[in-house]
Amino acid sequence: MTSPARHESVASETLNLVEAVAREFDDIPREAVVKEDCLRRGLWFTEEALRSGHEYARKSYFIFSFDHRPLEDMADAPHRDDAPEEIALEGGPWGFQRVIVSVRLNPDSPWLIELGDDDQPVLRCGDTTVCQVAFSPRPPYYGQELDDGTPITEVAPSIEWGYLLYLTVFRMCQYFGKEEECQFCDINRNFKQQRALGRPYFAVKPVDRLLEALDRVVASGSRAKAYTLTGGSVTSQLEGLTEAEFYVRYAEAIESRFPGRWTAKMVVQALPKEDVQRIHDAGIVIYHPNYEIWDRELFERICPGKARYVGRDTWISRILDAAEVFGPERVIPNFVGGIETARPFGFRTEEEAWASTGEGLEFFMSRGIAPRFTTWCPEPLSVLGKETGPATLRYHVGLLRTWRDTHARHDLPAPPGYGEPGLGNAVFSVSSFMDVIAPGTRTLPARP
Ligand code: SF4
What is the CATH code for 152-409? Predict the structure, then answer.
């Protein structure tokens, strides 16, 4: 871990950087600037802050690690296991409106949550108190075990401040090894590290176990409004099923037991149109065929499995085909904001990277499809995480402006299935795109 003197100097540089970027992008809320910095660098907690007596939802490792250190490297800080899933930044000396931030652990981060003068958690950077902090509320079903002893949080954790049930039904990916895995992704290695620590973390979720968990979620009075069915890609077969068949069987089971209860979302590959139709017919209403990065050469380097098995042009044309099945506003492909600058292959300047990603946004948004993004966290267990630090804060905040302005120029509605948009309302925690949508932007019902 970093020495106190070095920590102070990094904290001072961090605050100066936040000031400079907030000044340059003065139409982006300062809350979003701090949130992006916490996401790209990670944050840390004192033990006292985690022991301050209130209940909250702990980090569930719902799919990737989203940490800046492997868990074993943080073994001398056992309170790492008590970190919350998310935190809210609000109020305090900087007068923040609420923003929700996904927790990405980094013991060396200048962003530290500790107890303030009134014994309530605050976000500090060095000696500067930035705002108050609340921890993610604990859903009423947390703490339960299923009949076979599996903790319910292994099966159906809640994220986005309780809005979304995150159902990772396949915790591995058949793109395996550095020749095939997306280079920013640690899904397979995170699975291994969780298992190595003896945590209950299963590769494939039985359908019955998932339904039992959802029965309990419903009985508990959970306020979740949506679910995401997801997991790694299936390039050949899994349990004798193709990717579409494998994931559709969960959607059919959920929608048959709880018809229309939640906004049903699915993150899988860009599949042929007939498979996409099956996904739609199973009751899914929002489809996320994540393209990860726009630039052709970088897509091939950073997503070698996707490039080889599907190909960028086919991936893009399948996104457009999916818009005919779901309607363009319900096809929401993700990209990983920041990987376009990752060493050694990424763009050298922020301006080049904005131009490239902006071209992709223009391509999709001019067709009514609004991609969303997650802020890249260089996970050390991923291929890229070993080679490079995060993208710059200036890049992330400029990307937010590019996304917001392109979205507004095409007069698109707020992406459905994410809850209310706008500062103080948004709950999406792994990037700030929902925080920067202007008040008065059209919204759609979550289900068509
Ligand atoms: S397709 Fe890529 S991003 Fe998705 S789980 Fe597999 S390796 Fe990770």
Answer: 3.20.20.70
